[in-house]
Amino acid sequence: MSEIVNRRDLDFLLYEFLDLEALCRSPRYDAYDRVAVDEILNAAQVIAEDKFLSFAAKLDATEPLFEGGKAICIPEVKEALDAYAEAGFFAAGFDEDIGGLQMPNVLCLAMNGMFSCANHSVFGYSMLTTAAANMLDAFGSDEQKSVYLPPMLEGRWFGTMCLSEPQAGSSLSDIRTRAKPRADGSYSISGTKMWISGGEQEISENIVHMVLAKIAGGPEGVKGISLFIVPKYRVNADGLPAEKNNIALAGLNHKMGQRGITNTLLNFGEGGETQGFLVGEQHQGLRYMFHMMNEARIAVGHGAAVLGLAGYLYSLDYAQHRLQGRHPQDKDPSSPQVPIVEHADIKRMLLTQKAYVEGALALVLYCAYLLDRQKTSDDVEAQKQLGLLLEILTPIAKSWPSEYCLEANKLAIQILGGYGYARDYPVERFYRDNRLNPIHEGSHGIQGIDLLGRKVRIQDGAALKILAGKIKETIAEACESEFADEAGVLGSALEELTRTTRTVLACNDIALRLANATLYLDATGHIVIAWMWLKQALAVPRKIAGTHSDSAFYSGKHAATRFFFRYELPKVFPNLKIVASLDDTALNITPKEFIG
Amino acid sequence: MSEIVNRRDLDFLLYEFLDLEALCRSPRYDAYDRVAVDEILNAAQVIAEDKFLSFAAKLDATEPLFEGGKAICIPEVKEALDAYAEAGFFAAGFDEDIGGLQMPNVLCLAMNGMFSCANHSVFGYSMLTTAAANMLDAFGSDEQKSVYLPPMLEGRWFGTMCLSEPQAGSSLSDIRTRAKPRADGSYSISGTKMWISGGEQEISENIVHMVLAKIAGGPEGVKGISLFIVPKYRVNADGLPAEKNNIALAGLNHKMGQRGITNTLLNFGEGGETQGFLVGEQHQGLRYMFHMMNEARIAVGHGAAVLGLAGYLYSLDYAQHRLQGRHPQDKDPSSPQVPIVEHADIKRMLLTQKAYVEGALALVLYCAYLLDRQKTSDDVEAQKQLGLLLEILTPIAKSWPSEYCLEANKLAIQILGGYGYARDYPVERFYRDNRLNPIHEGSHGIQGIDLLGRKVRIQDGAALKILAGKIKETIAEACESEFADEAGVLGSALEELTRTTRTVLACNDIALRLANATLYLDATGHIVIAWMWLKQALAVPRKIAGTHSDSAFYSGKHAATRFFFRYELPKVFPNLKIVASLDDTALNITPKEFIG
Fold it and tell me: Is B346 on the interface with A (CB under 8 A)?
């Protein structure tokens, strides 16, 4: 078994749970078929294992250094990204007409999952580059696209997202970076950006920062934010990197995990002018950023899921080989010890990981598949519906894997015991790496406010209605299967969610309405993941003989489904009860009461 | 506010929740009164802040080095432990007749909590020394005590516990370290011990290892384990360290957290004979070890609780000073930002931490207080009852804080956001340090088996009956208070626990009976902590005017009680339902089903 992917499960998700083959029959994706997809995944797996996985532990122990204003990484990082670029993977998801491979989104995610799992930090460079290029592709001028997209799609120039500042993390409304118009139509950018991943490095030939800044005289708050392209090196008339653009690396942040990617504090306009180029229109920066946010948030959820997978695969392998103890019914100390995978509590911890990780993977791939269906549909109403479904699923696809696949990593450590706590084994690294995911790209609390404060209210609850309709379709189908009981519980949970939502939205006090938004988010997440499991259970062929080579795989899917419904879904009810009661215990506490 | 203790809360726990003053009136502890106790705590706080807290971050970043067979720490470690020794704290809990200060256990725990919170790794050396000395005091011969106890109580010699081996962690039955009788009555010890904290260092003048080993010809399994004193340096006729005893440091383990204390792989009998001295009788080693286990396990729970406290205090302070965002009802971006402690979700995360941390602290101090009551009681029946109560509370006092105060640390990181994920702030260190606690001193799963497989079955359920009786006393009292509703829910939960226990114990299949032992442990833990909160709520004086200087402190206790009962206790019911159903989903899964 590979340490970075369960190919059997990936095939199940792509071809049985989803219908990638049908997608590949659409004109947009008809360059791909199952044979081509398998070859791409095979090639990606080899590069991910050889060039990414091979030095992940070393990289964690050898952080980038801040030397003479530069950020220096070990050479393996560049070698890995060169191999990724050479395979054309930077261009995977982009349209053919701009030099992309026009792969389905769901395939891009599946393929990139192996890189992200193998070496989470290094994959970060490519993810950020793709995200920046995506935004340019959507909102940049033709000239901007012609200058920046080719080297980014070839992986020669990398991209970053510059949103946060030391005093403005979750509250983008309060950013202070300024953009002053210059005579030539460009802008002079000045200010400080914080937590910028990949903000400085000596790997790529140039860095294309996508920077949020305020133009003087614009509206206050988020309505006055504009988006700029700010390259590390200015680009000359031949499209080549020329003189420095005066972006100073003020320092590297030293993190608990994700140590392999530089995380920077950048000063724009230090020691000279920093030139920036407005993307699209003035004051529309946040809207452009949010357009890309869905994909970025799904990508974070996906990263959390594959880190969960890394721990699951490692601890499963360990449990099959580590001998320790005996069955409880065996009282003879001279009998041989058993592999710990035989112990009930180890099985429970493995099954919990499976339920979390494969449930999360199913959700993020499903979201990517919805994007593909949206892109390939020519029915405007269907596109709208798919868009609304994606809107409401995004905070869940971001937050649920971040929360529960971190929990999965905790269990992987527990299975290895003392060894799991030692840095000689990778599971503690996965746990440290994954701890970032509930924080960045909109913290867990922000996702809750997004869901309960915005998403369930869009068009009078249209998005929630579509989601509930989809879940009910699965419930109806399951009622005709051996999962009728599970379908019944999911139906009750969904009803409870609908009722709770109605109660909360009827409250006129916005502070009280949002007081338990995080609990609402977690409960909705559990319902969605239960739905994902029920869909997976139903995707298992009806009649599989015990001797079939896949029978264990399929019965494992059924076992994980039952497990999630028995051990996890019931947690939803007490949580929704609190939300529905508009409980104000936490809301009303005063700072003084915490410690007296 | 100190970063290592909330003295107001500690006073509440010692004097209002428990009755330390009454304890100090017993002949055993009458050298102490409230004035003396306060002075001790004051003195300890100063040393803990000046000598322990001051370099905790530096120590985490500067692991002990393995140099020429030695383990080298930064000099601050020795300076800290010297200050602790000079204050007499190594001897705090020991009887006066052997040179101890004969402090109440609950006071020792309260005092040591400040050191453990300030610098968890360094405190480990003193905790292990005290534990080893305790065991010697209980089971050593007079001669052994006269040789080893004085330098240990003076903090000149440190102690360790050598149980685990590379192939035997949870399964002590399978240890292979051998003890061969020598002509002079001592033993020749050979074998390898793993994960030995403090197993080698250059801080103390000698190291007294308490080693489990097997004497040839003894019974198989745990019945053939004996306990030995094995000093690093042999002790000469004057009681001074003399020649080396051939214990080789084979390596240092590099851990995720708790990096300040050496964690070692030791080879006994390498390069010459290692002499060991039998403690008590042959083959009774595990019994002796278990005699001390209750205190050691409560100490682990306490360590987890104070690490939780460290994160709580830090994130609370941060939340009061970090400005970010506005109230949801405030749509004016030019209005000033508010401290994040004003946001509902931050309050929820702080209140969750408070509920976990102060609930856990109450439990571990309560356990220490029970020990004191046992020691000061002259009623044999009462002593027996206290002993049984301690037996059943021990797995909970060990596991619940380890699980939930780790969760508290996760929330502390979340409150600090990106800053929390950076190593410049201490909260990620607390999280890394705390991750060990569910693993060592009997893993979380082992505690579940201890509770459901042993403790609830002692004397036909006598221990559980005593615990239930105590909880019912509190419920009865609460029924007459404003917490009558909470008392009712706790009563239902307790009933459900009793019913579930009966159902599970009636099952003849031991594997099935124990299959969900961890869930049983967690549910019982939540019930016990709810009880601790109800007891705290009742310890609040009935009439506190709003202007009273303590009114915020007391109303905070009430808020945390309500919070625990509303947000946490209801989680017990779905968990107990699974346990009672003897669910075998996890038990029956086969290795092949995990991945196919």
Answer: yes
